[in-house]
Amino acid sequence: MMQDNDRQAFPTLVEKFGHKLVSRTSAMGPCPICDKGHRTANSKLSISPTGRLLFICFACWAKLPELIEAGFLGRGETKIRFNPPTKAERELAEALAESHLQQGAERRRRLWDSAYAIPPDSPAWRYWAGRDIDPNLLIASGARTRLDVWHGESRQNLPATIFQVQGCERDLCQLHTIYHTIQGGRPEVTPRKRMSGPVKGGGSALVNTPDSDVLSVSEGVENGFSVRMMDPTVGKVIATLAAPNMASFKINFAAQIKTVRIYGDIGEAGERAATMLGQRCEDAGYSTKIFLPPKGVGDWNDMLLKGHG
Prior knowledge:
By secondary structure, the protein is an alpha+beta fold. The chain has three domains: 4-78, no CATH class; 115-196, no CATH class; 204-305, Dna Topoisomerase Vi A Subunit, Chain: A, domain 2. It has nine helices and 14 strands. Strands 5-6-7-8-9 form a five-stranded antiparallel β-sheet, covered by helices on one side. The chain is globular, with a radius of gyration of 21 Å. The model is unreliable at 1-5 and 75-84 (pLDDT under 50).
């Protein structure tokens, strides 16, 4: 486990990186490998409960080995030393982590079971109609809503639309939540969207067309529905919910799928994730094409709202 002097060394290492502490054991900031001075928080440096130093960049996807190879660790007073955890300590940490996962899954199951289909003229209905998305698509997707979903950061209950996240590495009732105002607008809260549970590899099914051999993959839920509104031929639509998850999305498609369309987001992280998924789909034998919104338009929902479909 981490020693006291290591706890003192971690803030020093964070400062050397130009990161900013967000807790005692984690920090966000520019990546020492890929940053060119125009990003401020694309990488995370942290210490795990078992005393491991962790690093991930959400732009270039560099991890700890690349950071060490580039010579950014182990310099003088920034060097952090660790006592390897004993077998008992490792087993205890793993048991606590598993217990935490199961407790979270049970909370999410209760939330999902208490939610219901989106009724007409509800905050969720008004929200999606306000984004020029047919709320009936939401109902067909199996999305649910509640008027009082807890938003911990702002300490209040808010209306929200809730989606199941399927195909993840573990089945722990993962959910994706998008908050609304009671009038159906976007609330002034952060975050406005939340992924709950270990969602790596998974996504939310938005449109199901069993007879189609086309699968369309978007990054965000709003973008996925927007693509369907602009082009009914997009086939089955799945949203991966975030750029890192698009990059790691599991290629385990139905047998009839022959073509994969990837609707990426503008920006380095989004475009890189789309390229990574596209390459994996091509390697798996699928006919693959990547689409990006025209520059200056915004995202796919902005494109729909501006009538570019």
